[in-house]
Inverse folding.
């Protein structure tokens, strides 16, 4: 029983104690003649209204409207507690229904009585038809009961007014019964009763609207068209809101002009009198014919319908009009609904639809959206519908329309755990209750919660939804906590819904839940997007099927992990990689503890496992990187590592070993971990393209430096005398520009300088041996990403000596350098070995690459000739020139050759162009106005886009490649890694657009 304080003026001395803030409240109480001593029951009830001020104002307005009859109403308020609760709750909750009551004050009597009984569906229909004089009429030759139509005697504006009034009369009665518990100790009307009554009322309303439409169109003539109205969406599921669009589809025989006019008129009348009537779910949407024959509907769904259209048909039911025709419609289309899950793109289409719905939410209300937001009503409905479509093909018990009925059926079939279903149902009904209260306020379609700083609106909603203070927190605080709890619960169960029954079927956890059969589990995995569902089931059995503590933890973790994995482009590979990782790290207690305790780490791991073939292999050998997947004080730990510090650590670690093999092995181990860190941060979008290139170049340089140092130390120890020469390693190509990708080799030149007194021949021979050993040690077969040292850019190419002295390089470039060799020197930069010697080499190279007066016009023509030849001959056979990231149109080669041509032409006088970095050189080109800034922006964007795509190719496939796929799973993985998580087609179109525009700049510079 609802408690009430004892009587006494001291408890309720005035309006403020009643929860009122309106300055006129005291005067209004006086107008009603309510006294704080004698009318304590009335005042106490008024204080419990969702908005006491609004309720009091409504009472005064009702008194004025009733005039001399107010006395009867006042007496009923004093004696009939049920009536008191209903009237005050409506007046304090809904301005729209209050206005309707004031306009029709006699309706107060319909709220009287100990218990308020709601009309049956048949009585609602009869009442709505009576408001417009609707009479039944049969079509000749058809079943008189199932195919009858109604015709109204009232049409035009009068009909709309009468229909609106009759509809709101019924809505007032339902709302009064639904809201009464907020004021008095009335039974709470169950959610299912409310939504089914609203649906029955909508059916009755549109039956009456159809009767008016028939008479309007046929105007006394016989109606020869059979027309059936099919309810869709919430109305079809019999779970309608107080204010919803009512989705319908029309079937007619014949689908002639009369049928179309009747359907259009019914929609117009219904939308004007009751609620928006929407036929956008019909075949071809708003662009399609409003009315079709049954055969036309069947033909469309057999050939053209999208997955979402079959999902919508889950809710289809005959609503009004020719019921026999409507039943035939459902009978013919239903079998198609239950086979849609066999479509190859079924799950992805359902997910796209859900993502599209989420994307429509404005950012400023995203956290307040009850219906479409994460953890909202749509999450429940989409999840339930997906499970229905997956298992309904073989289980007819799932062929139900409402969300709560479907959850009950899913529990009975073992597809959802009992506890999860009960919690999900409770959260769904709570969120629907809030939605109903928000809509009742003004009878407006809304799903948006009040802002957290709108205390009064939250207080009103809390009271309208039967939420009370808990002794420590006020009502609005309790409401906010309840909303957060239920939204979080929906999110959590949404993640478990597809996977918990699977895991209960394969694990040995004690559970009272029914278990899926193997066939049902495979069917569910297939529908969830697994290409090899039987293999996936085997992985789940291996992970959670044991009795160890690890298996139990896995069974608890996997629902969430698999849900995160489901958003990646390759769930099958991701699950296999997770199984391999779990088995490899079985003895590492920190692994599962990290995943259990650090949600960010677990989510990031799933993103990487489900998208990359490159990083998981590294993680298996460098599992300590997984500890960086969580968040630190300043953000992701993956970003706490500095590439320069890694390089220093790599050099220091390798320096501890006496043999080159062990030193380089130590360097490889640190490189492996750093590649795993960089690749992980790249996939997660934590590093931009220049940062990735810089980090990759830094680790390559450190490995070269460590290898050179180790090989020289071993040689010196073996010789028993000092080294006969200094050695420097000059980075060329992308290594020289600090722009390496994951699949890049290290292009280098080796230069030596004999020590004083040393024989030059001996020194060069010794340095050549050092260079060969470095190449051999680093290029040795390994399961790690390759460490290829490429010296083909040396003078005379492969036929030239591996190592030259500084003087020999100087002499060669001065006399014999070809144009391509001069161009290659533009990227030369000292990277390893003797720094002083390296700088001396660069000073020597400056004379060649930046000659006084610039390069000759002959050299420029040669560069253009070589570029044209590369364009026509170097592209691999069968490669798409629009999608080759290195040699394709607007790709890396195009941009880099353009920059280098401009450097050759202008760097002799523009010192800022003396730069090995492509991006920094582009900045200089723009700053010096050599090219318009708009052109350099196009080149920059293309270089970054192509580099990102090339890196993503390696991360996705696990091996170097330059050709972007044009479709399929491979493209999805590349697009996902490149940051295009939703639509790989948009990524490809973006790539083509950017590179096409850059190609235009390239052609202009090269004069082609």
């Amino acid at each position: 029983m609802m408690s009430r304080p004892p009587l006494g003026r001291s408890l309720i001395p005035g309006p403020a104690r009643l929860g009122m803030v309106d300055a006129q409240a005291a005067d209004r109480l006086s107008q009603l003649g309510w006294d704080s001593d004698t009318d304590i029951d009335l005042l106490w009830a008024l204080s419990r209204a969702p908005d006491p001020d609004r309720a009091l104002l409504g009472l005064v307005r009702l008194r004025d409207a009733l005039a001399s009859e107010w006395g009867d109403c006042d007496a009923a308020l004093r004696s009939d507690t049920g009536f008191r609760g209903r009237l005050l709750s409506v007046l304090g909750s809904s301005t729209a229904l209050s206005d309707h009551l004031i306009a029709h004050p006699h309706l107060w009597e319909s709220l009287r009585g100990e218990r308020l009984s709601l009309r049956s569906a048949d009585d609602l229909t009869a009442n709505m038809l009576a408001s417009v004089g609707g009479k039944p009429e049969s079509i000749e030759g058809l079943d008189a009961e199932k195919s009858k139509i109604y015709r109204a005697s009232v049409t035009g504006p009068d009909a709309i007014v009468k229909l609106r009034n009759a509809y709101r009369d019924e809505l007032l009665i339902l709302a009064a019964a639904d809201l009464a518990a907020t004021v008095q100790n009335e039974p709470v009307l169950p959610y299912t009763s409310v939504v089914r009554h609203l649906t029955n009322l909508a059916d009755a309303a549109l039956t009456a609207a159809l009767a008016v439409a028939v008479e309007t169109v046929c105007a006394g003539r016989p109606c020869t068209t059979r027309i059936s109205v099919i309810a869709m969406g919430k109305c079809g599921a019999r779970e309608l809101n107080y204010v919803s669009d009512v989705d319908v589809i029309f079937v007619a025989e014949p689908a002639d002009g009369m049928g179309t006019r009747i359907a259009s008129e019914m929609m117009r009348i219904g939308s004007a009198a009751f609620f928006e009537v929407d036929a956008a779910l019909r075949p071809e949407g708003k662009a399609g014919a409003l009315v079709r024959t049954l055969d036309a509907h069947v033909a469309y769904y057999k050939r053209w319908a999208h997955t979402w259209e079959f999902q919508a048909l889950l809710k289809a039911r005959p609503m009004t009009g020719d019921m026999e025709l409507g039943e035939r419609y459902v009978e013919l289309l239903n079998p198609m609904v239950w086979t849609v899950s066999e479509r190859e793109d079924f799950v992805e289409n359902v997910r796209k639809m859900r993502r599209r719905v989420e994307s429509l939410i404005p950012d400023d209300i995203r956290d307040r959206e009850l219906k479409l937001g994460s953890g909202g009503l749509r999450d429940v409905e989409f999840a339930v519908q997906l499970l229905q479509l997956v298992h309904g093909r073989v289980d007819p018990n799932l062929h139900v329309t409402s969300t709560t009925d479907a959850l009950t059926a899913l529990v009975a079939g073992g597809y959802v755990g009992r506890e999860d279903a009960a919690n999900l149902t409770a959260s769904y009904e709570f969120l629907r209750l809030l939605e109903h209260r928000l809509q009742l306020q003004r009878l407006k379609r809304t799903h948006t919660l009040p802002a957290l700083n709108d205390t009064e609106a939250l207080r009103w909603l809390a009271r309208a939804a039967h939420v009370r203070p808990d002794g420590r927190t006020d009502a609005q605080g309790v409401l906010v906590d309840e909303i957060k709890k239920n939204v979080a619960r929906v999110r959590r169960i949404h993640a478990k819904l597809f996977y918990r029954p699977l895991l209960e079927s394969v694990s040995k956890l004690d559970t009272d839940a029914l278990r899926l059969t193997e066939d049902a589990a495979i069917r569910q995995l297939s529908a969830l997007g697994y290409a090899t569902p039987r293999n996936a089931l085997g992985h789940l059995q291996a992970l959670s099927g044991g009795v160890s503590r690890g298996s139990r933890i896995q069974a608890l973790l996997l629902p969430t992990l698999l849900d995160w994995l489901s958003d990646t482009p390759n769930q099958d590979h991701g699950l296999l990689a997770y199984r391999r990782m779990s088995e490899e790290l079985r003895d590492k207690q920190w692994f599962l503890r990290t995943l259990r305790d650090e949600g960010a780490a677990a989510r990031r791991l799933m993103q990487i496992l489900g998208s990359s073939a490159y990083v998981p292999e590294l993680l298996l050998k460098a599992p300590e990187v997984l500890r960086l997947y969580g968040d630190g004080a300043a953000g992701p730990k993956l970003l706490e590592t500095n590439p320069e510090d890694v390089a220093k650590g790599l050099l220091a670690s390798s320096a501890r070993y006496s043999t080159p093999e062990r030193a380089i092995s130590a360097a490889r181990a640190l490189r492996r971990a750093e590649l795993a860190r960089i690749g992980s941060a790249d996939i997660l979008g934590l590093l931009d393209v220049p940062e990735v290139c810089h980090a990759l170049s830094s680790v390559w340089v450190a490995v070269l430096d460590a290898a050179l140092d180790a090989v020289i130390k071993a040689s010196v120890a073996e010789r028993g005398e000092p080294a006969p020469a200094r050695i420097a390693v000059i980075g060329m190509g992308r290594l020289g520009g600090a722009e390496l990708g994951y699949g890049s080799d290290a292009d280098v030149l080796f230069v030596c300088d004999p020590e004083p007194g040393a024989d030059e021949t001996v020194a060069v021979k010794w340095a050549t041996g050092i260079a060969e050993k470095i190449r051999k040690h680093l290029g040795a077969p390994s399961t790690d990403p390759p460490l290829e040292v490429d010296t083909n850019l040396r003078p005379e190419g492969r036929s030239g000596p591996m190592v030259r002295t500084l003087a020999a390089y100087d002499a060669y470039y001065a006399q014999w350098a070809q144009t391509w060799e001069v161009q290659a020197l533009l990227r030369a930069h000292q990277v390893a070995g003797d720094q002083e010697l390296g700088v001396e080499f660069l000073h020597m190279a400056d004379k060649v690459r930046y000659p006084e007066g610039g390069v000759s016009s002959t050299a420029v023509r040669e560069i253009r000739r070589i570029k044209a030849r590369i364009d026509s001959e170097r592209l691999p056979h069968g490669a798409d020139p629009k999608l080759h990231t290195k040699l394709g149109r607007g790709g890396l080669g195009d941009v880099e050759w353009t920059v280098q041509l401009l450097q050759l032409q202008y760097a002799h006088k523009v010192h800022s162009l003396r730069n090995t970095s492509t991006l920094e050189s582009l900045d200089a080109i723009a700053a010096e106005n050599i090219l318009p800034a708009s052109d350099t922006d196009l080149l920059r964007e293309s270089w970054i886009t192509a580099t990102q795509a090339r890196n993503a190719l390696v991360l996705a496939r696990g091996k170097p490649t330059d050709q972007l796929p044009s479709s399929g799973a491979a493209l999805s993985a590349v697009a996902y890694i490149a940051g295009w998580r939703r639509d790989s087609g948009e990524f490809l179109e973006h790539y083509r657009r950017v590179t096409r525009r850059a190609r235009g700049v390239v052609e202009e510079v090269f004069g082609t």
Notes: The chain has six domains: 1-114, 116-167+178-337, 357-497, 499-610, 640-849, 857-1006. Confidence is low (pLDDT under 50) at residues 1-13. The two ends are 89 Å apart (CA to CA).
